[in-house]
Fold each of these.
Amino acid sequence: MTAWAAAIATTGVSPAVPDYRLLVFSYFIFYIAVRIIS
C-alpha cells in the first residue's frame, strides 16, 4: 500500500504536464515493489 501511495504521489507531481518517462518509472518502481511484497 505504501508503494501504491508513493507511485500515486510521484505520478501526481505535475498532473497538468504528463511526463511519460516519469509515469513509466513510477510503474516500474510499483511493479518491483509488488514483486518484493508478494
Amino acid sequence: MEKLSLRGRLEDHLTFGAGYVPFLAIPIPVFFPFVFGLIRFQDVRAPFGPLSPSLYASITIVALIVTYLLLRQVGRWTFAPSLHCPKNILLTVGLYVGIVLAVVFIGYLITNPHPDAVTRLSLPDVLVGLTVASVYSALLSAVILRQDLAGLYGKPIDRFRSIEEWLEAVDTAANTEISGETQVSEYQKIIDEGEALLDELEGARTNEGKRLHSMFEKWLTDFRQRSSSVSRAAILTGETGNDRLLDKHQTLTCLRQQVAGIGGDEGGRI
C-alpha cells in the first residue's frame, strides 16, 4: 500500500480538504492589526483591561472546546480515515493554536524591538496570546465547517449507507457455504454496491481520501474483470497459495478497515 507523504498528511490535518481559503476568510487586515496593535504586551495589565485573568482563561478553555467539537464534526464528514480519530483532531487543535501563537509572538517582536523583549514576557502575557490563538482557531474551524455544510464533501448520509451496504455484501459473499448461482449473485452485488461507493468516494477532497478512492477503484476494477468464481472467492477469503490473489485479499482487508473508518458514527449522521 502506497504511503501518503508527510506533506500530504499535514495538509489534510490543516485544511480538512477545504483548501487554504478558510484561512483568509477571517480578514487578515483586521486580525493582524488587532494582534500587533492591541496585544503588544508592553504593559501586563493593559491587555486585560477590565477583564480578569480567570476570565481570559475561561474564554481560552471554551474556545478550545468549541474548536475541537467543530473540527471533530468536520473530520467525521471527510473521506480521510485519520481525521475520524479524536486523537488526531486534538493534534490539529494544538497545531492551530501553535501557529497563531507563533504569529502573535512575531507581532510582539515587531512592535517591541528591544533587547529584553523576550525576557519581559510573563505568564499573563502568554495567557493573552493563548486567548487570541484559541478564539481565532474556533473562528477558523467554524469557517471550515460552514464550507462542509455547503456540500464540499457530499452528502454524508448517502456515503454511510453505501459503506454499510458494500461491507455487508463483502461479508455475505465471503461466506464459504454459499455456491452456484447464489455465489455469483453475491459477487455481482459486491460490484454493484462497490460502484455506488466509488461514486461517493469521487467527492474526496483530502489527499488521504483521494488515495482511498484510487485504491478502491483499482481493487474493484480487478475484481470485476475476474470471471473465475474461484479467484474471486480466494480474494475474499484469503484461502489461497497464489501470491497475487493473496495480495488482492490483503488490499481488500486494508480497504475494509479504511472504509469502515469513514463510516462515521451515530453522532456524525446528521
